[in-house]
Amino acid sequence: MSETAVKAPGAVDPGRWRALVFIALAQLMVVLDATIVNIALPSAQQDLGISDGNRQWVVTAYALAFGGLLLFGGRIADLWGRKRAFVVGLAGFAAASALGGAATNEAMMFGARALQGAFGALLAPAALSLLAVMFTDAKERAKAFGIYGAIAGGGGAVGLILGGFLTEYLDWRWTFFVNIPFAVVAAAGAWFVIREPEGSRNRSPLDVPGVVLSTLGLVALVYGFTRAESEGWSDSVTVTMFVASAVLLAAFVAVEARVKAPLLPLRVVTERNRGGIYLSLGLAIIAMFGLFLFLTYYLQIVKGYSPVRTGFAFLPMIAGMITGSTQIGTRLMTRVAPRLLMGPGFLVAALGMLLLTQLETDSSYAALLLPSMLLLGLGMGTAFMPAMSLATQGVEPRDAGVASAMVNTSQQVGGAIGTALLNTIAASATASYIADHMAGATSRSQQQLVQLEGMVEGYTSAIWFAVGILVVAAAIALTFVNAGRPGGTTVTGSAETVEDEVPVPVVAH
């Protein structure tokens, strides 16, 4: 195959599988960072003298920058080229991680986390859109997105294990420094291996009003949910944030419908399949984020597990996700319609969540937590894989970056909502249980038991809501997503074919 054939629009890149290694490594780094810092937070707070009131900003600064700038990052990737955006994002993320690891006070830490979020918002959509434009054959695409989906789903739990090891045996600063080798290897590999197809950039002028409105609207939304978790839903600032977000995002939609070169072309989100995927993925992430949080607290506080042991306790979920994504999803994706993987996948995850509503203070890990985690992992892995692939399939190459950014945005906003909403439900149920039962507890040990039982009562109350949310996600996937199974050799976003392949029409969903 000639060099021009490799670079022509729609041509197959011979280095695509090597490129996948570096794209997956970068994705793992970003997903790890979402949970690895949570394990290190207590140690970092003590060392840097961060107050209890301000410690949430270690997480919030990252979430605000990442969630607020994702659409902008996706558009920059389309404008600059995904390879360049990917490498710049990795370099910036590594520099911000070095700054966080070397932090000497809270301002330096918060700044480093915001920078990590900003460069992550450039990196994440560039990584997913590179997969979208490099893997065009349906069977290869299924395998590539199976690997990517497993990392996207299971990386958070890996972060808990790695964070526990680094914090317990080295120092919390290594939860930042560990990103640097990841980023250097991924950036070097990407620079030499990735060959982005020509003609896939969107060189339209940047939609500045769209950038401003979307960034402010998403920041207000994420901050509203984050603040609701700590200050309550009726707090005046919380309410103001939600109102401001609604106004800004409504103005954003109005602007996008009118400008010639919109930041987010409405055709990307109004297409039935993509709209259904963004909505169902966001809902599933709400359930998942809440669960990670509750199980981490349950295992460490109620069961007395160490950080490392807690991380290892999540391994069955990771194994389930990898199996669901690479074995079930990948093998069936070219044989059945995506909704027949997504819908049942979310329902299997809901069944795993349903088992967790039986949680007690003395529940057996082997009898209850292990099977529930396996079911959750299998279900989520099976559903995530076709969702990730279909979200960017059939989209015009010039829109690949922003379509990928919407996948990340739905996950990021879903995570913020899940943490705040389910935490609020749990806290309310816990307070109610303790108020009802504390009067009968006369000794100190009985009072401690009531507090632990109250915590578990709160977790199970919130998990019931998570079950319902996953059932709704399954219903949306089965109702909205009506695409048929992918054809054998379809070239997404191009009507051209490659060498000996049989010419086929563009897949349009």
From TrEMBL:
<dbReference type="InterPro" id="IPR011701">
    <property type="entry name" value="MFS"/>
</dbReference>
<feature type="transmembrane region" description="Helical">
    <location>
        <begin position="20"/>
        <end position="41"/>
    </location>
</feature>
<feature type="domain" description="Major facilitator superfamily (MFS) profile">
    <location>
        <begin position="19"/>
        <end position="485"/>
    </location>
</feature>
<feature type="transmembrane region" description="Helical">
    <location>
        <begin position="115"/>
        <end position="135"/>
    </location>
</feature>
<keyword id="KW-0812">Transmembrane</keyword>
<feature type="transmembrane region" description="Helical">
    <location>
        <begin position="340"/>
        <end position="359"/>
    </location>
</feature>
<feature type="transmembrane region" description="Helical">
    <location>
        <begin position="237"/>
        <end position="255"/>
    </location>
</feature>
<keyword id="KW-1003">Cell membrane</keyword>
<feature type="transmembrane region" description="Helical">
    <location>
        <begin position="311"/>
        <end position="328"/>
    </location>
</feature>
<keyword id="KW-1133">Transmembrane helix</keyword>
<keyword id="KW-0046">Antibiotic resistance</keyword>
<protein>
    <submittedName>
        <fullName>MFS transporter</fullName>
    </submittedName>
</protein>
<keyword id="KW-0813">Transport</keyword>
<dbReference type="InterPro" id="IPR005829">
    <property type="entry name" value="Sugar_transporter_CS"/>
</dbReference>
<feature type="transmembrane region" description="Helical">
    <location>
        <begin position="85"/>
        <end position="103"/>
    </location>
</feature>
<feature type="transmembrane region" description="Helical">
    <location>
        <begin position="462"/>
        <end position="481"/>
    </location>
</feature>
<feature type="transmembrane region" description="Helical">
    <location>
        <begin position="206"/>
        <end position="225"/>
    </location>
</feature>
<keyword id="KW-0472">Membrane</keyword>
<feature type="transmembrane region" description="Helical">
    <location>
        <begin position="147"/>
        <end position="166"/>
    </location>
</feature>
<feature type="transmembrane region" description="Helical">
    <location>
        <begin position="365"/>
        <end position="392"/>
    </location>
</feature>
<feature type="transmembrane region" description="Helical">
    <location>
        <begin position="56"/>
        <end position="73"/>
    </location>
</feature>
<dbReference type="InterPro" id="IPR004638">
    <property type="entry name" value="EmrB-like"/>
</dbReference>
<dbReference type="Pfam" id="PF07690">
    <property type="entry name" value="MFS_1"/>
</dbReference>
<feature type="transmembrane region" description="Helical">
    <location>
        <begin position="276"/>
        <end position="299"/>
    </location>
</feature>
<feature type="transmembrane region" description="Helical">
    <location>
        <begin position="413"/>
        <end position="435"/>
    </location>
</feature>
<feature type="transmembrane region" description="Helical">
    <location>
        <begin position="172"/>
        <end position="194"/>
    </location>
</feature>
<dbReference type="InterPro" id="IPR020846">
    <property type="entry name" value="MFS_dom"/>
</dbReference>
<dbReference type="InterPro" id="IPR036259">
    <property type="entry name" value="MFS_trans_sf"/>
</dbReference>
